[in-house]
Amino acid sequence: MGSRRGTVVLDLVRALLARPQAREPNTTIAHQTIVFHRSRGEANRTARYQADQFIHEGRDDLAGTLRPFMSSFTAIERREILDDLRDGSCLGVFATSALELGIDIGDLSAAIILGTPHSRPSYRQMAGRVGRRSPAIVVYVPRDNPLDNWYADERRFASHLATAEPEPVITDPENDDVAMLHLAAAAKELDINCRTDETFFGERLKERLRILDEAGDIQEHKKGLFYWSSADDPFVRINVLAAKGTHTVEIRRMEDRQVIGQVDNWSALWMLFPGAIYEDGIWDTYVVESLHLGPLDQRHGHSEVERVAWVRRATTSQTKYYTVALTERNVAVVDEKKVIGRNVGSLKVHRGPVKVTQTLADHYFRVRRAEPGAAGLPKQRKKMPLRKWPTAVGPDGECDFRSIEMESAGLWFPIPTAVWEAVKERAQRPPRASIPGEATPDERAMSALHAAEHLICRMTGVVPGIWEGDIAGLSVDSHPAFSDGPGIFVHENTPGGTGLIDLLMEGDNLGNVIRAALERVENCPNHCENGCPRCIQDWLCGNQNFFLDKEDGRLLLQDLVRRAG
Ligand SMILES: [Zn+2]
Ligand SMILES: [Zn+2]
User: Angle at which helices 509-522 and 441-459 pack, to 10 degrees?
Assistant: First the structure.
């Protein structure tokens, strides 16, 4: 079943695109189909694999009608795909949520939704892409992860997704990262009134105006009225170190300097590191030669320096692979004064501002793509050393650049001493197959904690209003926040935070998440022995799911559920 699931979407697409005609079984007619994916890489890879498969079957005509659609494409490419969709020359489009809202693609006849949508309205947006004029097909395909399989239960699918009221929209007007940006951009458009505009820019408007004033960005030209006076464009002046997706990095072909795509600077570090393979649609593959992330701080000049990833065409053998960045993450509590504690049952949980540092490891994975006709998707991956680092321009000129810092909101709780003692005792038993034989008892104890952390982070998606992709976590054996004992951090992936952690701290939400985590590991649909992507493995894991112990993770979660009341 495990390997079979990987091809469900492909089987569906083939059935929809090459449907035999009732009267003439040797000819086919097509349902124009859209497949929604959770990530760019996933959309591109399904599109490529499907095209390869059609060519393998002698259906080059169908292969030529498939297109991926994603935000990294140039505006011209995106317009072309939309035209092809409307005039029917594109029969199958493989998209991310970039194609969800506000784009007219006409009326298609089938939608495949791969994985849990960001929200209930998002589900309806996707499903609403089809069937406006005539009956259509919508298929939800749970991916191999615990949250999707939780939703795959028919009753939960109906009551929590398909027919449920839209979730409350969570936002935080006091998020400095967002508020300062909007304030700067607004000041360039219109005067800001420091007395009356608090409604739009939060209670700390005066303080924020003072910061911009001191930086020489705005001036008070009448009492209480401020206007943008800097020559800089406020839209492009965010520190790459402290913000996510604030600048655009161009992807340029070395042969002719042509721009073939663009991506935000945050994604660029993980997608376009030197040596990475960049898949540009179905037919073109490139290898990244170098990545230049531009000035670290716009205010220190250098604005003429380009943000660019230079790519060259991949050789035939390179096109058989894709690459996955490996990252390391650290979390630190930044402002003790803002930390608030609360008991969830007998678990002592804290929330507060955290600094998250994500660093590119000195290795990455090269993974072989599936060959057409092969059953399932291959798991061959090779660890490759990073030979060159991305660069950025700091105060002393160009430098190696390998990490991004952001401040966000987090919650954390220590593992109670008695619970951890039990984990350590279990870790003394003879090793099982899932854990490398040479693992020490300490590493095995951490494998249990790592598994529990994965499930807790992913199952935050059971709380209405939380998209689990906006949440990440870290398990540590020792950290100052836990008086140098073990514990779990759960944090938002958005700079400044958007209120999701507050929501998790409300009522019984965190308790529900921990209970859902235990329920998933106890009821993995694969009935796996050592853990699989449908229970403890996590698609966002920075170290690619090394050191995970399903059974000990389950026992730890059992203890945590008891403590959480
Ligand atoms: Zn499993
Ligand atoms: Zn992990």
Answer: 120
* Residue 37 near residue 44 (C-beta atoms within 8 A): no
- What domains can you pick out in the chain, each with its CATH number? 2-143 (3.40.50.300), 176-237 (1.10.10), 248-326+363-403 (no CATH), 415-564 (no CATH)
Task: Provide the pLDDT for residue 297.
Answer: 67
Q: Nearest ligand, CA of residue 144? A: 1
- Indicate which ligand has the atom closest to the C-alpha of 532: 1
Token couple for 479: 């950290």
pLDDT in tens, 79-112: 899 899 889 899 999 998 777 666 777 778 999 9
Contacts of 230 (CB under 8 A, 6+ apart): 215, 216, 217, 218
Measured in angstroms, how far is the CA atom of residue 232 from the centroid of ligand 1? 52
Report d(CA 332, CA 355) in Å as an integer. 5
User: Rounded distance, CA 449 to CA 344, Å?
Assistant: 19
Q: Is the pLDDT of residue 4 over 50?
A: no
Parallel, antiparallel, or unpaired: how do β-strands 137-141 and 110-114 relate?
parallel
Nearest to 342 by CA among 510, 505, 564: 505
pLDDT in tens, 544-562: 788 899 999 999 999 999 9
Question: pTM to 2 decimals?
Answer: 0.83
Please give all residues whose CB falls under 5 A of ion ligand 2, grouped by chain where several chains appear: 541
